[in-house]
Amino acid sequence: MVRIEHESENAAPVAPVTFLATARRAKAEQAAAEKAAAERADTEFAETDEWYHEPEPPEEVSSARAEPVLKVVPRFVAIEAEASEEEIDDDEQDDSLRLMDLERLVVRALARKDLSEWEVTQLLGSNGVEADEFEELLIDYRAKGYVDDFAYAERQVEALHRRKGFGRSQISRELGAKRIDSEIITDVLATLDDDDELARALALAEKRAPSLSKLDHATAERRLTSFLQRKGYPHALIRDVVAKTLVPVGAKKGSSVRFR
Predict the structure, then answer these.
(1) What is the DSSP string of the chain?
(2) Which of 63, 167, 183, 250 could pair with 232 as two cysteines, CB 3.0-4.6 Å apart?
């Protein structure tokens, strides 16, 4: 019984010794495993990420390494070219819309009033068009029949002579004020017939004469002469018209007038 108790007392420390040995062995195995795993990780990292080791660049760049750069550059150039083409298209579209707006502006103005080419350029200038653009726009408008200074001058001769009774010199001044070329003015005035001009002057004088009936002959003659001069008739024609229109009532110089 004593022996058994002694053995039990001696058996007690065996268990701790065995446990410590096992723990140390397990820890050593774990450390070895961690080291092996770390070595494998380092090996894989080195194989997949060469840049980390910062290798020395070769003395000459091979064509294989330069090729990606050569492939990238044209792509950027193509993108920039496409962007430039889009900007050009946008600019052309804006310019086209601007030209359409200007054309509509001119057409509306011509619908209200007959205009010379110079008057059209004044309209364009007041709407932001530069002077160096006028001729190009006028060429387009002439081709479309919007403006024609010769046709305009012919219409003005008809309006100023037939309707307002203007003579050649006044018509010339009116056309000159609209910047009509002097050669065009000469050509259109040549279409006026002398007999027709005389007939128009006589018609104007006879219409004006009743307002002069209470004046003496000299005053009536002076006022009728001034009236016909403002209409642009030549002096020789005016003298003839005044003589045919005003007829003195009495023999005295200051007598009143009567009419044909």
Answers:
(1) -HHHHHHHHHHTTHHHHHHHHHHHHHHHHHHHHHHHHHHHHHHHHHHH-GGGG-PPPPSS--HHHHHHHHHHHHHHHHHHHHHHHHHHHHHHHHHHHHHHHHHHHHHHHHHHS---HHHHHHHHHTTT--GGGHHHHHHHHHHTTS--HHHHHHHHHIIIIIIT---HHHHHHHHHHTT--HHHHHHHHTTS-HHHHHHHHHHHHHHHGGGGTTSBHHHHHHHHHHHHHHTT--HHHHHHHHHHHEEESSSSTT-BEEE-
(2) 167
